[in-house]
Amino acid sequence: MSNPSLLILPGDGIGPEVMTEVVKIIDWFGAKRGIAFDVSTDLVGGAAYDKHGTPLHDDTMARAQEVDAVLLGAVGGPRYDDLDFSVKPERGLLRLRKEMDLFANLRPAQCFDALADFSSLKKDIVAGLDIMIVRELTSGVYFGEPRGIFKEGNERVGINTQRYTESEIDRIARAAFELARKRGNKVCSMEKANVMESGILWREVVQKVHDEDYADVELSHMYADNGAMQLVRAPKQFDVIVTDNLFGDVLSDCAAMLTGSLGMLPSASLGAPMANGRPKAMYEPVHGSAPDITGQGKANPIACILSFAMALRYSFDLGDEATRVEKAVEKVLADGLRTADLLGHEGETPISTTEMGDAIVAALDASL
Ligand code: IPM
Ligand code: MG
């Protein structure tokens, strides 16, 4: 049997730097655990635009459809701000999500003990936090038609459309309930049913899926603005949060910051199962390309490394090995190792991206 295949798309900004550290972890699994991957690397975002004039070449898109999992670093940067909208780096990422139909975006927000006093919130509010945001990723206002900037009389109007079909809501609700069963068995669904028809339908369908097939899971509904407030007031009340594409984008940044740093948060974007039973999948850190620190050795590779751990768990059924990576990360943090984004106390000196990657590899060695 051939090795499982990975397509690595480092992208822009700190993407390549953090991905270099992920490759060390991938290589470690080949060398020390006999778990080898066939790895190929390609361009996405601004890097692809620079070479091909498009943020995602058709060949790369085709390759992404074939592999067992895609690992993506980050896209975008100020150099590309003035590009035409259709070729902006983000369009490459959105095309991958849409064409691979990666409708379920899993964004865990876990507070590592060693970082509990690093959050902008009080320690007891975040210590032990473990929530999972399930963001719908292939529909809603990100993709709805009509969209565009149009002329209306003597001024222009910008239009985007929030649009959800019953089946789109149904499948994301199922993904959330399935996950909840493996965790705290609680789902909170967030929308704005008080002002949006799409929110009314969202609430109805989530409730129906629950009543028909997941009555054993505790379900609540919340308006998304209240959800944002509750996330900073008492985040531990949540287990799984399921929400649409745009609310999920905003709420997951908020949840990420509860844990101390955006540099810590991984994500998995999953689609329907392929012929081999594995879900179509792409794994990426929640953070962006961080142009302000690019090339300085300051980037935190942990979010990207934890994204690979999610790949082990969700694409390759290697939950124990995923836990091994998570424990290695926990260990280096407990040992006091900090990249620049994690500095909270006087007298702490940061380690570099490379040093963090090497320390995690060493912690993996120690786990054997
Ligand atoms: C994210 C990002 C993306 C999004 C951007 C880069 C297109 O913010 O993954 O959260 O808005 O979905
Ligand atoms: Mg975002």
TrEMBL record:
<feature type="binding site">
    <location>
        <position position="97"/>
    </location>
    <ligand>
        <name>substrate</name>
    </ligand>
</feature>
<keyword id="KW-0432">Leucine biosynthesis</keyword>
<feature type="binding site">
    <location>
        <position position="249"/>
    </location>
    <ligand>
        <name>Mg(2+)</name>
    </ligand>
</feature>
<comment type="subunit">
    <text>Homodimer.</text>
</comment>
<dbReference type="GO" id="GO:0000287">
    <property type="term" value="F:magnesium ion binding"/>
</dbReference>
<comment type="similarity">
    <text>Belongs to the isocitrate and isopropylmalate dehydrogenases family. LeuB type 1 subfamily.</text>
</comment>
<feature type="site" description="Important for catalysis">
    <location>
        <position position="142"/>
    </location>
</feature>
<keyword id="KW-0460">Magnesium</keyword>
<keyword id="KW-0520">NAD</keyword>
<keyword id="KW-0560">Oxidoreductase</keyword>
<protein>
    <recommendedName>
        <fullName>3-isopropylmalate dehydrogenase</fullName>
        <ecNumber>1.1.1.85</ecNumber>
    </recommendedName>
</protein>
<feature type="binding site">
    <location>
        <position position="253"/>
    </location>
    <ligand>
        <name>Mg(2+)</name>
    </ligand>
</feature>
<dbReference type="InterPro" id="IPR024084">
    <property type="entry name" value="IsoPropMal-DH-like_dom"/>
</dbReference>
<feature type="binding site">
    <location>
        <position position="135"/>
    </location>
    <ligand>
        <name>substrate</name>
    </ligand>
</feature>
<feature type="binding site">
    <location>
        <begin position="77"/>
        <end position="90"/>
    </location>
    <ligand>
        <name>NAD(+)</name>
    </ligand>
</feature>
<dbReference type="GO" id="GO:0051287">
    <property type="term" value="F:NAD binding"/>
</dbReference>
<keyword id="KW-0963">Cytoplasm</keyword>
<comment type="function">
    <text>Catalyzes the oxidation of 3-carboxy-2-hydroxy-4-methylpentanoate (3-isopropylmalate) to 3-carboxy-4-methyl-2-oxopentanoate. The product decarboxylates to 4-methyl-2 oxopentanoate.</text>
</comment>
<dbReference type="InterPro" id="IPR019818">
    <property type="entry name" value="IsoCit/isopropylmalate_DH_CS"/>
</dbReference>
<keyword id="KW-0464">Manganese</keyword>
<keyword id="KW-0479">Metal-binding</keyword>
<keyword id="KW-0100">Branched-chain amino acid biosynthesis</keyword>
<feature type="domain" description="Isopropylmalate dehydrogenase-like">
    <location>
        <begin position="5"/>
        <end position="360"/>
    </location>
</feature>
<feature type="binding site">
    <location>
        <begin position="288"/>
        <end position="300"/>
    </location>
    <ligand>
        <name>NAD(+)</name>
    </ligand>
</feature>
<dbReference type="Pfam" id="PF00180">
    <property type="entry name" value="Iso_dh"/>
</dbReference>
<comment type="pathway">
    <text>Amino-acid biosynthesis; L-leucine biosynthesis; L-leucine from 3-methyl-2-oxobutanoate: step 3/4.</text>
</comment>
<dbReference type="GO" id="GO:0009098">
    <property type="term" value="P:L-leucine biosynthetic process"/>
</dbReference>
<feature type="binding site">
    <location>
        <position position="225"/>
    </location>
    <ligand>
        <name>Mg(2+)</name>
    </ligand>
</feature>
<feature type="binding site">
    <location>
        <position position="225"/>
    </location>
    <ligand>
        <name>substrate</name>
    </ligand>
</feature>
<dbReference type="GO" id="GO:0005829">
    <property type="term" value="C:cytosol"/>
</dbReference>
<dbReference type="InterPro" id="IPR004429">
    <property type="entry name" value="Isopropylmalate_DH"/>
</dbReference>
<feature type="binding site">
    <location>
        <position position="107"/>
    </location>
    <ligand>
        <name>substrate</name>
    </ligand>
</feature>
<dbReference type="GO" id="GO:0003862">
    <property type="term" value="F:3-isopropylmalate dehydrogenase activity"/>
</dbReference>
<feature type="site" description="Important for catalysis">
    <location>
        <position position="192"/>
    </location>
</feature>
<keyword id="KW-0028">Amino-acid biosynthesis</keyword>
